[in-house]
Predict the 3D structure of the following.
Amino acid sequence: MRFNHFSTIFSLVILFSLAQVYCQDLTTSKAGDSLPESNSSVPEDGDFMPNAIREYNEAYYILSRLNTSTGLPPNEFNFQSPQATLEHFVYNARSGDFKNASYALNFNLLPDDITQEQAATLAEKLFFVLNQRIKIDWSGLSDRPDGQIDMSTSTNQAIAGKPMRSVVFGEIDLEGRDIVLRMQRIKYKDYGAFWLISANTVENIDSLYEVYGPRELDRMMPDWARIQFLNMPIWKFIGTFILILFSYLLGKLSLYIFRKIFKKSDKIWVNTIAKRLATPAGWAIGVLFFYISLNKLISFGGTFASTLYAILLIAVIGTITWFIMRFIDSFMVYVAETKIGDTNPEENNEARMMLTYISVARRVITFIVIIVGFSVILSQFRSLEKLGISLIASAGLATVVLGVAAQSTLGNIIAGIQIALTRPARIGDTVIIDDDWGYVEDIRFTYMVVRTWDERRLIVPLKEIISKTFENWSMTSAHQIRPITLHVDYKTDVNLIRQKFSELLEQEENWDKNHPPVVQVVDMSEKTMQVRALCSAKDASSTWDLHCTLREKLIAYISKLDSGQHLSKSRIRIQNNLNND
C-alpha cells in the first residue's frame, strides 16, 4: 500500500476519534474559562505542620488536624463513601465551582497558610489532569462507607471482609515515577469518618499539572476560536486537521528526498535504502511529527484523550518497528546478494550454508523485533501492565494454554532455528521428500519451500524436516553416482558392453571422472541377466542428464549388436514325441 493511502486512513481514524468526543463522560472546562498557570500554586517554602496522622485504625486514618486554613467541609456535602466524594469533586469542578470542589481535598501536606483561592486553583488543576489523562473506573469505586465493593454469591450470603481505608481511583506516570491517586477514609476529632482525596495525591497536583497541563495553543487562542462544536472548541478540530495535513506533507517530502538523493548513487546499499527504507522512514517521520506536535500544542480531555494518545502511541511504535524490520531485512538481503557467491552450483557449499544462515536469522530477528515492539506497546498502558502481572501470577496456566494453542507454530519456529544450527538441509540443496525430487528454494518462519524439477513448489513444515526421514543429495557433497540398469540375454558378452560404456563415457562432458567406468552383472531372472553401469557427475542435475544420455546410447548399441541377438527373449523348446506304430 502506498504512503498516501496510509496517510488517508490515518487521517480518517483521527477525525473519527475527534467526532466521538461527543459521547465522552468527562468534558473540558467551559469555553470562556481561563486556565491556571503551570507554575506552582503553593509556595515551596512555608510553615509545614508535623504529620497529621495520629494513629492507624483498620477502618480509617485518625488525624490530629485537617485543612487548618481552608476549614472542614460543610455538613451538606456527602463525603460518606469514596464514590460520593469523587462525584462531588467532578460535578463541582465541571460546573466551574472549584471552591466547593476543593473541600474534597486533603491539604495536610501543604503549608498551613494556604488560602481558599490557592485551594480552588489546585482543585482546578487536578480536574484538568483527571480530565486529560485519567480514565476513572466508577464501577470500581465503592458507594459504601466502608469502601468495600458489593459482591453477591450463589447462596446470597454476605461475604466477610475488612473495611477499606484507602482506595485507588487512578494511576499516572510522572517522569518515570508512578503516581497513584487515592481516596482515603479519615477520622478527625469527634466527627464521623468520611472520605477525602489523599494528601499525597494533593501534594503531587502541581507537578502533574506542569507535565499534563494545557498546551501552548490552549492559552493563545482568542475567544472566537473557543466556540464549542461537539463539546470541544472548534479550533482544536481545525488545529488537528492542519497538523494531519502538515504531517502528511512532511512524510511525502521526506519520502521524495530519500528517493531522490539515494537513487542517484551507484552503490547497491544506497539504492536498497531508496527502494526499501524510504517508505517506512517517511511514514515514521510523519507520524512521529504529528504525535510530538499534537502533544505539545493541543490538549484533549476525558476518555477521548486517552484513546487518542493510545492510538498515536501505537502508530509511532508501529512505524518505528516497521522501519527497524525493513532495515534488518534490507541489510540481510544486501549481504545475501552482494557478499555471498552464486548458490546455484551445488558444489558451492559455503555460499549455500551462509544463505541458509541469513534466511533463518532474517526471519528470527524479524520475529523478535515484532515481539519487542508489541511488548513496548503493552508496557505503555497501565491496564495491560496489570494484565501482564496477572498472567505472570498464573504462569502455569498461561504456559499450558499457550503451548496447546501455538504448539504447531512455535514448534516450527524452533525447528527453523534447529535447522540453521544442525544444517540437515540448506538453501540450494537437492532433496527427495515423499518421492518428490527438488531443490530447497527458501527456508521461512515455519516452512520450507522445495522447487521440484517440474517447477512445482512443495510447502513442507519445518517440523517435518526435523522429525521425518528425507534424502539430501547435497549434504556433504553435490557429487553423485547414478546406476544405469539393463536387462540383456544370457548369451551377451558383458565385456563388449563394458568397453562400449567406457568409450561412451569418455565422450561425455558431464562426466566428472571422479568415478571410473563400472559395468557389473548384479542380478538375473529366468529370462535375462541384469547389468548395471555406474556414471558420476558434479551434481544431481548433471548426473541425471548423463544417466539418461548413456542409457539411451547403450540401448541403441545392444539393439544393433549381432542384429539384436542379445536383447532379452523368451525361449520355447518343442520336442516331437510321436511313436510310429
Remarks:
- Residues 1-32, 387-395 have pLDDT under 50 and may be disordered.
